[in-house]
Amino acid sequence: MHLLLFPANKAFELESYRAKPSHAFTSAGYDRRAPFPSTPSTILGNTWIMAVSRSRGACQCLHALRPSTSARAAACAVTLPRHHVISSAGPREGQLRARDARFNARTLGASRRYAASSTHLSTNLSQKDLNATHARVQELAASVLKPADQPIPPEQRVLYVFEQLDAISRGLVDAKSINASVATPAPNATATSALLGSVNNRQSPPSVTKSSLLSLISQAMEEIVRHPHVFITPAVLKAYIEVQSLLHQPSSFPDVLEMYASKPVPSVSGNTISFATPNTGKVNAAVPKSTADIALTAAISSHDLPLAIDIITTTYCTPTFRKAKMLRKMLVPASGLAIAPVAAYTLSQQFAEWQHMLDPQQATYMAFAGMMTYVSAVSMVGYVAVTTANDQMMRVTWAQGVPLWERWVREEERAAIDRVAAAWGFKDLGKRGDEEGVEWQELREWAGRRGMVLDSVALMEGME
C-alpha cells in the first residue's frame, strides 16, 4: 500500500510500507464524504490525501480525504497520531484500531515538514505586499484626516476606514501567529550550521515589517479619534476599542473614553468650522456597557492594574452611566407603577357594579385599597430581592450602610472591580485572602473608598 499526497496538482509518494490493503489513515478535521476526483489534474484547493492498494494489478482508491478550509487544519493535516487509524474492515466502519497503527517515523517527519513548509509559503507576506499594505493604511487614514470633499468626515466614512483597518490587522495578526508556530528549526541543523547560515544570509533589515504595520494602524486610529474634526459616536468608539484590543494597545482607552463625553462637537457654518461644548451630564454621554466591557477585558489581558482602574473610573463610575441605566431599566417598571392606580380604580368601579351587598362607592374604595395593597407589597418584595441579590458576587461585596438603591444602580461598577480582583488574585478558593503586594493593597483601599469590601471574611469559603 502507498500513502499518496497530492498538493497543487502533483502527486508525491511518501513511502511504501506493508499493511493490510483495507486500512487508510486519517486525522480529525477531514471530510470523508467528499467525492474523490477522477484524476489528480482535477484536484482544486489545498491538499488531498488518499490510501492506495496495489492488489490484483489494479490501483484502487480506498479513502479520499479533503482538508478543511482553515490554514491551521492544513498545517496539521498529515500530523497523524498513532491511535488515529480508521479501518474500513470489521464489524463497524470507522472503528479505531490501535494495533494496526504501524507508522514509520521517517514518513511522519517528512509529512510534518511538508505541511509546515506549505503553510508557511501560503501565509508568508513578501516585502512588496507589506509595502502595499503600508501605503493602503496611509491612504485610509488620509481619507479621514484630510478629506477632499468635505471638511468634517461623516460617520460612515470613519466606520469604513476602521473596518478596513480591522480586516488588515486580523490578517497580519493571523499570519504572524501562524508563521511563528510553523517556524521551527530543522531537526538536522546544528549550532555551527545555524551560525554559518546566519552569517552567509545576512540581509539588510526590511523597511516595513508586520510589527511596524500593526504599530502604524494603532497610531493612525488614535490620530483619527483625536482629530478635532472627527465626532466620536458610539459605533466609532466601539470599533476603535475592538481594533485596539486586537492590537493589544489599550493604553489610550482612558483618554478616548473621556473624550467621548467631553470632546467638542464640530459643525460647519458656511466656510468655517465651529465647535460646541457638549453637555457631559446628558444620558448620551454615557459609554455603552458593551464597549466598557471590551475595554476592561483588554486592560485585564495586558496585566495593567492602573489602566483597569482608570477605565472603570471613566465608564462605570460616571453619573451619566447611572442615569443611562435608570432610564434603560426603570422606564417600563416606573410606567407600570404610575398607571397602576388608574387601572386599579377603574377595575374597582366595575367590581362595585357587580355586587349588591355594599354601597357602590364603599365597595369601590375597598376594592381599590385591596388592589393597591397587593401591588405595593409585591413591588416591595421584588425591590428588596433585586437590590440584595449577591449570588453574582465573587470577591467584592458591598460594605454595611450602603443604601439598597445605590447598590442596584452601581452594580456594574462593583462587578467590574470584582473582575479585576478575580484576575489579580489567586484562582484557588483556599488561598483567597492571602494575596500580598503593593498593587493588591491599593486595589483593596480603592474598593474601600468606593463603599465596597474586598474578601469579606463572612462570605469567604468555610467562614459562613
Please give the radius of gyration in angstroms: 33 Å
Tell me the number of helical segments per DSSP (H or I, 4 or more residues long): 15
**Major sheet summary line:** 5 strands, antiparallel
State the distance separating the first and last CA atoms: 68 Å
Helicity level: 40-55%
Note the main attributes of this structure.
15 helices, disordered N terminus, 52% helix, 3 domains, three-stranded antiparallel beta sheet, five-stranded antiparallel beta sheet, 464 residues, flat, alpha+beta
How would you sum up this structure, described in words?
- With 464 residues, this protein is α+β, with helices and mostly antiparallel strands.
- The protein has three domains: 2-123, no CATH class; 127-186 and 208-315; 320-459, no CATH class.
- Helix content is 52%, strand content 12%.
- The protein has 15 helices and twelve strands.
- The chain has helices at residues 71-75, 105-123, 127-145, 155-182, 191-200, 210-226, 234-246, 253-262, 289-301, 305-314, 319-354, 360-387, 404-409, 411-424, 438-449; strands spanning 2-7, 12-16, 23-25, 30-31, 47-55, 58-67, 85-87, 95-96, 265-269, 272-276, 396-398, 452-454.
- The strands form four sheets. The chain has a five-stranded antiparallel sheet with strand order 2-1-5-6-4, with helices on one face.
- The model is unreliable at 1-122 and 181-186 (pLDDT under 50).
